[in-house]
Amino acid sequence: MNLSGILVVTAPGRFDECVAAVAALPAVEVFHRDPATHRFIVVQEADRVDGEMAGLLRLKAVPGVVLAEMVYHYFAEGEPQ
Amino acid sequence: MTSLTRRAFIKSSVATATAATVGFPVSQVALAQAKKAEAGWAWDKAVCRFCGTGCGIQVATAGGKIVATKGDPDAPVNRGLNCIKGYFNGKMAYGADRLTQPLMRMKDGKFDKKGDFAPVSWKVAMDEMEKQFRRAYQEKGPSGVSIIGSGQYTIQEGYVAAKLMKAGFRSNNIDPNARHCMASAVAAFMQTFGVDEPANVYDDIELADTVVLWGANMAEAHPVLWSRVTDRRLVAKATKVVNVTTYRNMSSDLSDLEIVIKPSTDLALQNWIAREILARGAMNKAFVEKHCVFATGPTDIGYGMRPTSKFAYEAEKDIQAKELVVTLDKYEAVGQRRKAGEQVEQKSRTSAGRHWLISFEEFKRGVEPYTLDFVAELCKGDVDEPIAKFKEKLEQLLQLMIDPKRNVISFWTMGFNQHQRGVWVNEQCYMIHLLLGKHATPGNAAFSLTGQPSACGTAREVGTFSHRLPADMVVDNPKHRELTEKTWKLPAKTLNPKPGSDIMGILRDIEDGGVKFLWVQVTNPSSPRPTRTTGSRPRARPTASSSWPTATPRSRARWRTWCCPPR
Questions:
Q1: CATH topology for B103-177+454-563?
Q2: pLDDT means per 10 residues in chain B (567 residues)?
Q3: Cβ(B219)–Cβ(B251) under 8 Å?
Q4: Is residue B287 within 8 Å of residue B439, measured between CB atoms?
Q5: Could you give the number of structural domains in chain A?
Q6: Which residue of A has its CA nearest to B223?
Q7: Least CA distance to B69: which residue of chain A?
Q8: Which class does domain B201-297+355-418+431-444 fall in?
Q9: Which of B67, B81, B94 sits opposite A71 (nearest CB)?
Q10: Which of A69, A75, A79 should we substitute to test contact with B (largest number of B Cβ atoms within 10 Å)?
């Protein structure tokens, strides 16, 4: 299981729109939200390394997202790819 | 706990740990749950080695294996954040294609440069290296052997490599990939300040009012530092970000102003800014009079190419043709006070660093031709953008820089450093900041970002450059050699006083047959060079030390062995 804890930062005034767009993405779950600082935390699940990278690029491409970077990488279970 | 429930539990724990790492307020209950998911893990601190930012990471192990990594919230640079490179620090140790034993080109059970890679024992690999090294050393002496090193060395690795070559083999033919990365930045540092390091710190980001990116796509190349710029931009409403770039990129998303220019026209743009600083009375006269002198240097310096076409590929010939004589276009003619079409012999090809003092009046006359009309026509990089709109943007950039109430940081990386005139464009950025008195004070910086984790430590301080000795000393200084000989307990006057070949020199030497043995360490020179031509026709016997199957050993060069030192 590859789980990525990711920090997402949005442009001012686009927080709700970005949260909704990100939440609609497959294999991505939105957890903590901080509208005052335009930041929220998501956890992304992927089977392989290329899926992890593609997932991050997909987050960065969401309109209104100005920053999405990995923070936490969990790969304790299953053979790493 | 079912697998679905456990998965949800772990996801929630990962989210909480992520939030806590980057400073979100998180309840004690949630933190306690996250700790449960990490039961039995041991967290240790580490450093990311993938770029020059200097991020701290934390690595969790359980049962002798890495199970998780995260940014170190206590690290002053990244404050818990990772970019994609730091994120994979743990998992990369387990890649299926990671090398775990030496590979050597073999045919019929023996080493053969035309053979295919086959796994061999360490003894077989080292014995073959020794045999080939002895052959080269006996034939050519110290100048016939070489190491291409790396800004990715640890300090200790770099020190050992430098000592092996300089003290052991009396050869200065060791040079790191850091030469590619930062040579122009270093020359500009030395010529401008006499000291080879940036004058500011990352904490200046939180004090900046204007951030100018000069050919640096920080959003993708320096994402951790970009996160700090982002925070500053979003928190301090007056802060503005300008992206001066040759193409639209991700850094434009946050920027207030995007200025698309033609490649290499940034020099003219900088001259216009300097001209306007003087014309509008924006120069910080007290600062300049106290701390600065005006200087200039030759323009007929060539391009560092071989003047012969012997080894040139098609992609190199347009620049190579200008190595000895340049026919000025209409823009170059204005800058050099000559006529368009005039042929200028490149007489200063071997003395490009020469410079001399000039008066303030001479400096003023030098930038006078760089009017807004001239520079806008030369620089505008988006053909669809109206010239009036482009001029308006230049004016906005100027105001954001010269306003005495605004702190200004300029950031750059390889957009300047690997420029056709990398030294000049670095120096001219210092010129702007020094004219304004906006350098080396809190929130004000002309800031050359680096790209490698230990280019300063291994290339400069422990002496893996071909002209250097440890402790920032140099091989052509008799006192430095004497001190180093004492430190290393060498017989007096035995260190080689002649600087060795730099990295491009080594690659040319192996083409020409001057170098017969090359050991590539912790780098991949076949991949990053613009045309990947030089060094691909070697008459030497190269060996590469790498943990991964990179382009260097696979290239046409037929690199001989391919080793992976265990780490």
A1: Rossmann fold (3.40.50)
A2: 75 93 89 88 92 91 93 93 90 84 91 90 94 95 95 91 97 93 88 86 96 95 92 92 96 94 96 97 96 93 80 78 90 92 94 92 95 97 98 98 98 92 95 96 93 79 93 95 98 97 91 91 74 49 61 43 35
A3: yes
A4: no
A5: 1
A6: A69
A7: A73
A8: alpha beta
A9: B81
A10: A69
